[in-house]
Amino acid sequence: MSKPRLSAVAQPATNAATPSPPGEALLRAFDELRDELLSTLCYLLGNAHDAEDVAQEAYLRCLRSQESLAEVENLRAWIFRVSINVAKDLQRSAWRRKARALPGGDLIALLDASAPPVEAEHRETVKRVREALIHLRPEEREVFLLRQNGDLTYEQIAELSQRPVGTVKTQMRSALQKLRELLA
Amino acid sequence: MDRCGQYRDQLLDYLYDLLEPEVQQSLSEHLNTCALCQSGLAQARQQQHLLASAARLSFPHFRFAAPQPNQAGRERLIQLPNWRWGRWAAAAAILLLVGGASIPVVGVLQRHRQLESSVETAKARHDQAIESEAAVAREFAADLQKRRTEQARLTEQVAVLLPREHRELLESFDREEKEHDLVVHLSGSDVIQPGSHFDIDTLDHRGRPVPADLKVRLIDVARNAVVAEPQVAERRAGTYVAVVPPGMKLAPDMNLRVEVVAHRAEGATVPVTAAVHTPSRSTYRTHLITDRPVYHPGETVRFRSLTLERDSFAPPDGELQLRYSVSRQGANAAILNIAGSSTASDSQGTILRGPGGKPLRGLGAGEFVLDGRFPEGEYVLTVREATNSFPAEQRVFRVRADQDLFLKGAEFNQPSYSAGSDVVANAWAVRVEGTALTDREAIATLTIDGKTYDAQGKTVANGQPLGKLRTDAEGKVKIAFRLPERVDDGDAQLAIEFIDGNNRESLIRRFPVNVLKRVVAFYPEGGTLAAGVTNRVYFDARTPLGEPAALRGHLVDDQGKVILEVATFHDPEHPRVEQGAGVFAFTPLAGRTYHLRTENGKFDLPRADFNAVALSVPGGVVNPEQPVRVVLRSARTNRSLWVTASCRGQLLDHQHVVLQGQEAAVDLNLAPSSLGVARITVYEERHAAGKPLELVPVAERLIHRPSPKRMKLAVTPQKLEGQKVGVGIRASDESGQPVDAIVLLHVVDTRSAGGKLDGALPAHFLVSHEIRNADEMEEAEFLLGDSAKAREALDLFLGTRGWRRFVELEGEPRQPENVRQDAQRFLVLDALSVEDRKIVNQVEQKRRDEETHFQQEQRKLTTALAAEIREVENQKLRDDRELVRLNQNVDETRDEYRSALVAFQDYDDWFQQLRRILQPALAVVLGLLATLFLVVAVARRVPRPVWYYGASATCALLLAVVALRSGLGNTFLSVDSVRTDDETQFAALKNELSDAAQPRGPVPGIRPVPMMAMRVTPPANLLRPAVEVAQVEPGVQRVESKQPARFRPEAPSLALEDAKLLAAAHRAPPKVMVAPPAPQIMIREYAYQRSLGNSPATLYWHPARVLPSGRLESLTFDLPELTGPIQIRVLAHTVDGRLGAALVDWPGR
User: Fold this and answer.
1) What is the ipTM of this complex?
2) Which residues of chain A are within 8 Å of residue B917 when distances are taken between CB atoms?
């Protein structure tokens, strides 16, 4: 599924209190990617709170680097890459990991609360798929979400995760296989 | 899986760009053309949509917050807590670190070891499963190899060894046969004289010409000296002529023998010597009969042949290969050929056994239907033997196209008539379906000596009838007429034509008209009437029509002097043997003429010859145990004569007689085994100036030596209830004791049989080699009996119908062609010795046995091979099932191993992460503590600084240990490097697991299974059975592979070469072609049953019925509705050479 690529072209500033036009564009891009980005982070980190913190931190990091925004070719991929790096920084924190909720615990509650934007007859299916997503191996889950929500190419994912492209594709196939078995 | 199936499995990968570019391109193109896959793509898109929906959660309330100016210095939302450590906290932390933290660390390490141990255990089980599978596979492969070796051995046996052995055996038989298989036929005059020649044919036992080197010698046996060596000229391959040297001298006392030494040029390793000393004979003779002489189209011809040894009249020991053929009279091409062996069997193929349980030999029988190949005409049924062991025998039968519409008959009021007498004939006719020909027109015509007469005996135009008559209510018509006053030859016949609508049928009946005219022939005993000495003269009298006639009169010389009274033989008890023959003896004088004066006329005797020799064997019938006394008389004295006796071409004895006076007698001692008719021949030495000695035959006659072994047959028909006839038969020997006989039983309806039957089986074997038409001897059974009357009648028979060779050859043969044929027949010498014939027959038998044995062996081996192939297949399938089971076990242990490994990996992942955190933290703490203790010791000058120094050193030491445990500080604080270590370890585990999934070591017949990845679900084809089960045979399941079986051993099926060899063994005939054994000739019994339809001529026929203890009680058959008189023919023989025949007329209803 192809998604519209976000443009990094800055918009003209409206006032001083508001972010500069690049900042405004960045905020607009983050807003547009909000659900995909937060969903991805939520699945990766296991709870919505961390996901929101990481998303906010990623926004700030991007904001700090907005001078180089013009050089960004794929804003969407850039945002996801920064967000993933922030999430990994968070995961590396011993304190963060120690405080991490059990996998899926908080997330399942979130999933239940989040009404699937699909027809009623597929609601149960979507719910099962989400549960399956939680139980994917972390690498597979990461690859799938980056591809599905982030619309990153496999090369970009490989670069981001520092794994060979073949490995990334294999993990994607594995994730798809597991999810497809669920759908079959 | 088909192409669409493959593509449909890849559609989701296609949407996620996971396919290789070329596959992506191929699938894309395929989607443009395949509606089914397009539908699958739509489904995949739905799945993708669902995945996208699941991956995306909703965060409607979240807003990204831009940084505020007062928050500009805040760069991190996530910060470490604001530590306020105190001194005591540090101490507590140290205590916690050292003491409290050690407890969970120990638990974690223990858990890690447990999981690691589980992995090792699962791995060991997996290894064991693989090893078990490999061991079983090796065992199966070894077993299969053993079976294939056995299979190959059987195949070689069937296709190579057995045929080769068979071929070699047949070749050895051929060689052995060639050593003995040489038949020399010598033909020509048995009067050996200079200039005469012999025709010599060299043949194999099948009658095929065989080139041979010949050496012909005339040997004087008495002197054991070679008299002459006739030169041999080759006419063509296998046919030679040997000419006796013109200058050869013959001495009177020579006991000559022609010796032909034949050496087979082709393949013979031992020369075959055929010493021919006398006209020899074929080994056997055959009697052939049909059930009737006349048939109609569509009827069945039944025939039987009986072959017996020529001297002993015993059946042959071995089998004869009989060849029957039917051809038109005068034509060579056979219309029908029937072949078989002479061992009789019934319709089920069971060999019939005779007395003593021995197979019935020498018999052949069969039947054939006169279909469209047999139009009206005369046909000849011929029987031959494949090795020419007996002369071909023939039987003539006629096919008459017109079927009788009526059963007809006529009876005359007197047995015979004279000229001018009144004749009354009652004729009748009944339709074949049984209704009388009531009130129908009948036309009678009288013909006498070719002229037509009316009812008053007046000559009328040819064809003019006596009158038109009508039948009465019973279909009878009465015809009355008067014979003419003068009848010459007495050939009178009455023709009655019955007219039933459009159906006309004539009945022609000859009736006897006594005429005075007679034809009388004289047969001086020996051939020529000798003047001046007593002669016995046989004569026979016949009517102008050739019918035997009684004659009585006087022998009168030319001066009217009555010499003696003469009469034909008369036997009131057996009038049928009165053949108009008689004999008288008188002494003719030279220059005088004699005649027989009777009331029928005057009949001149031949003139007496002064030079003739009168040969007399009084009685003509000589007991075998007695010498044959031959009396020679001649008016001319001082004659050197040779008297020989021969039987069936074999010289039995010869004596030299010098006739000093007018009469001499000589006794010839004949071998007791040569029975039947023998020939006595007298030769005279002729010495001509300048010419070699000649032996000239001057007199000859036939004698009969009856066999002491006789068989009497008593046939007693009687009428039974239900229109049935019962026949009882008794066979007894000369002393009245029952004998086990094999009989032909034959019953005919004489009205429709087309002629009378003959019962001349004994006559055929005893007489027919010397007398033409001996099979037609009427009352043969009586003539060959041992009563005085029978001997007298037989003597007359031999004297009148016996063939006197020299008279007929030199002078006036009445039937020159027949005589010549007979001469050829009698002079043929069959030079194959009995021993050689036995050997050839034995070889032939061995060849047939070998053929049968070969076929049985081939069948047996082929069956064994097929069973072996089937067993291998079944074994293979059983092995496959076992291997599949073991493979499933391997899969299960691998899954367990994988599960253990995954569990370990998950735990280890967490463990490593924990280690990555704890190790740096511990190092930092230790470093801080070491520094702290050092600073305190130095800066605060504590009273006992050594403790601080010690603590600092301890912390430093622990720090070093931690550093060493972390890889000597090799970026032990680097998360990336820790992860790299983990991945390395994990990769090592993966490799180990992959190795575990591979068969350890090369396992014959097992292909390694590629292991995709640790966590990849095994392909579906590994989980579902790779085999399907189908029934092969009861109790054995056959497994057919639907896809390449992973653990299927190398196909142990029959190799292509083996299969080819096997197929060749099945279809290829052996290289050496051997004529297949002839089928047994079926002995079929036929008995008329009323329920089957119209009346047949043959009511009963059984070619070879065995009479145990010479008795048959229960022969019954139906009588047709309109049966006339029936005739029962019984021809019997025994295994010890007795012959018998009985011909019984029975009035029927």
Assistant:
1) 0.86
2) 94, 97
